[in-house]
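Marked as duplicate of an earlier ticket. Keeping the data here for the record.
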Amino acid sequence: MWMLRTRTALIALALIWGMGNGAEANEVTVVNRRIVPDGKWLLLNLRLKDVFSPRTRNAIEAGLTTALVVEFRLNAGQRRVVEKEIGFEIRHDIWEGQYLVLKHASPPDTLRTSTFAVVERFCTEMDAVELAPTDLLRSGEQIDLKFRIRVNTVSPEQARRTRQWLEPPGEGDAEDSRGGIRIDFGDVIDFFFNIYKPQERSGWIDLWTYTPRFTGQLILEEAR
């Protein structure tokens, strides 16, 4: 039973390797962006596309739990004003054909759907993101907003669970009764995850450059 489970898992890993090998991260496109001063906060509305590369799509469709993180960085020259992340955990039940997406943000949110297009929209359309408190801004100081995308199709926890699932009884070694060869399948899985390098990361993308002015109320002057 264990050997059948092991062979099945290794075949699945080989298929994932084959469909992911040589893939590159997508060129993320900004469809729309808007920053709105709202009392004590700068709020960001953002629309993206081409976030999911073919390799990431294939990994999700194969049932690998995938972490998508949108990182924001707000700088004023050499001064780091704020760093912020919005995370999405994407799970696909391949037997039921259902997707579950957990949004790690403030406030958190959850999506259940049977359509990947809905998943994509949920992860790439962000409204009223509390980007930074306005009291961190200085009048006349130019502010640069950048973002990047990080995708991980095999989390450390998932790698640990996979290794544990494949570990045979006893010392964690499997013996080939025909040749007496002992194989540590955990080492095979570790080797796979080290070579597969399941993380994709885009470069930092310029989103906005502006200068805040305080004249009774906060005004943002966009750089031309």
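See parent ticket for discussion. The chain has a mean pLDDT of 78.
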